[in-house]
Every structure is written in structure tokens, then in C-alpha cells.
Amino acid sequence: MSSRRMPFGQRPSADPSLEAWVRQGEAAPLPSAEPVKADIYTARMTLDVTPEMRARIKVAAFKRGRTVTDVLRELLEQHFPEDQP
Hints:
- The structure is a single chain.
- The protein is an all-alpha fold and 85 residues long.
- The chain has a domain at 37-85.
- It is 44% helix and 0% strand.
- It has helices at 16-23, 37-40, 51-63, 68-79.
- It starts with 15 loop residues before the first helix and ends in a 6-residue tail after the last helix.
């Protein structure tokens, strides 16, 4: 362990190229034909399921060539469509 200690809250000197790389995500999004997922899905939910159910969901998504997130979003859209009162 080093004997040199930084005071709490002091930021270490930054590499300018690293700082630029981190900040590039803060730039305005480029126009594209499809919306960015972050622009569409802005709320996060937490759902507790058994480890067995989680495994079944993951296997089902994998067999369909999809992500768990996409499969669950599709399922929620089917059960809770926008046009429902």
C-alpha cells in the first residue's frame, strides 16, 4: 500500500484524452432513422423473480436470439398496450 494519500474528494489529475473519451457520450445525439433506446425507455423497474424463473426467461430469450430486456418489453407491450384506457 502506498504511503501517499489523497484527501477525500480530491480528483486525480486527468488524462485529457481519457477525459474527452468519457465526455463524448454527453454530446448531442446524431440524427438517425431509428430512435435511441435511451430516448424511448426512461424509467427503470425492478422485479423480483425466483432464480428458476430468471433462468427460464434467459433460456427462452437466448433460443429466440433476443435479449431478456427485449423479450420482457415485448411481453409488457402485449399485456399493456398504449391504447388501453
